[in-house]
Amino acid sequence: MSHTIVIFGASGDLTSRKLVPALYELHRKHRLPEGVRIVGFSRTPMTHEAWRAKLAESTAENIPKPLDSTLWQSFAESIFYQPGDIEQAGDFAALGQTLARLEAGAETTCVYYLATAPRFYEPAIAQLGAACLAERSCKRCRVVIEKPFGTDAASARRLNQKVHEVFDESQIYRIDHYLGKETVSNVLVLRFANTIFEPVWNRNYIDHVQITAAEQGTVGRRGEYYDSAGVLRDMFQNHLMQLLTLTAIEAPARFEADAVRDEKVKILRAIRPMKVEDVATRTLRGQYRGYCDEPGTRSDSTTATFGAVCLAVDNWRWQGVPFYLRSGKAMSCRTTQVVIQFRQPPHMMFDAVPNRLHEANRLVLQIQPAEGIQIHFQTKVPDAGMQLRQTELDFNFRRQFAGDMPEAYQRLLLDVLQGDASLFARADEVELAWSIIDPIQQAWDAGQPELGLYEPGQWGPPTSDAWIERDDRQWFDLCPVLH
Ligand code: BG6
Fold first, then answer.
1. Which of 365, 179, 155 is nearest to 257 (CA)?
2. Distance between CA 372 and CA 186 in Å, rounded?
């Protein structure tokens, strides 16, 4: 059995920065299945050798250790290049011939990876169908579709319809690279491979949940894309919504694609749709100073680079427990974390500790970059009467386990090759996530709430603290210490 990965958008950034380095790392660790070949497809005319040489350079820049030239040589022998235009049917016929020659009649799993600009998703899929390269009945053909999957619920629905004309849902792998992060999978392990957390994982013990994805970086060279997307489409509809569902789901019976995704869909359905009149108070939006001077952005742009959203999950477990989601660029540090803020003790018999929520227990799931988990709890300060102080138990992945944390794409590519869709989004999941975001985006586009400016290096606009304090809560804003 052999495997062919055809990458559309072969000369693009994603291919050189993420996909090929991830495949090389899997090869280095002897994790790639036997007989994997990579075929790049894009318009730039290039020979196999020229593409291999380019990839050697970019891979060296995007892996944690120096490139081993002997290993690279053995890996590069399976890399091929096919120049072609997604709009040209003839180029797909030529691709078909190349694949047939390379595969030489061997039974092959073929993965089509769409790493192109999103406007090419539909035509690429249609051409694959027309060229008979993606028979719906052929379970060994798979298609991987990068984000953004649509720009709202209607466009996502349309794209789903188009993909379903050519591929069966079981052949479709919609990427959300957050799902490939080890710490994100670990949310399920923490909750469902232990007994001590689940009994308190509900409205009786949890006051609220904060999910933050803060980035220190600005939009950089991606101004043109970002200006039409903004933080809601770029981070909330996908990554933050995935973190929310994994934090909130009921235990699936098995760790299988549809069992997990069914539970996630139940949560998405339980999220209370935001009424337009509530968007002004239940969300916050901001833009960092200097954003409009970034290359590719409009000089009068009102695109939000920071957002905070308070969502309610209407089910028995989570009734009355708000989920505060927050993400921004140009923030004070890079940190993605899920904070489970427990309730205060019902009665505090120690006078020295005021009964305040932020002094109550807290579980912090550090998704990145200081991957780990902390539990915060009160402790008696020795030799100081009955004085108490909040202290923490600190688990850190890098201290506990040897080796580097792998890039998300390694896990995801391996899963696609093995036909495991557990860490990919299903059609209904993507559409539901958009339907939660759409009313918020519409109100933001209409100017509600007011766009707050913030200085780069802040935690969003100055109103951010007051926004959450109205609910008698506080942001947990600690930048993680890297070990
Ligand atoms: C991408 C967004 O999906 O995720 C980027 O388009 C963002 O804007 C990136 O920077 C964040 O990913 P990570 O893995 O660095 O947290």
1. 179
2. 10
- Number of Cα atoms under 13 Å in the Cβ half of residue 141: 15
**Could you count the other beta carbons within 10 Å of the beta carbon of residue 401?**
11
Residues 191-230: tens digit of each pLDDT: 999 999 999 999 999 999 999 999 999 999 999 999 999 9
For 256, residues 6+ apart whose C-beta sits below 8 A from its C-beta are 422
pLDDT digits (tens, 9 = 90+) for 238-264: 999 999 999 999 999 999 999 999 999
Looking from the CA of residue 215, the nearest atom of ligand 1 is: 10
Gap between the Cα atoms of 233 and 217, Å rounded: 18
Closest residue by CA, ligand 1 atom 14: 178
Q: In what order do the strands lie in the sheet with 323-328?
A: 388-396, 372-380, 362-368, 335-342, 206-214, 323-328, 306-311, 283-288, 451-454
Ligand 1 geometric centre to CA of 74 (Å)? 31
CA distance 452 to 353: 36
Over residues 417-447, the pLDDT tens digits come to 999 999 999 999 999 999 999 999 999 999 9
Which residues contact ligand 1 via a Cβ below 6 A?
147, 215, 234, 336
**Are the CB atoms for 228 and 391 separated by under 8 Å?**
no
Distance of CA 127 to the CA centre of its chain: 28
In this structure, the number of other CB atoms found within 10 A of the CB of residue 103 comes to 16
Distances in Å between the Cα of 320 and the Cα atoms of 208, 312, 356, 357 are: 8, 7, 19, 16
Q: Select from 151, 176, 177, 367 the residue to mutate for testing ligand 1; criterion: most ligand atoms less than 8 Å from CB.
A: 177
Catalytic residue chosen out of the listed positions 27, 239, 376, 483: 239
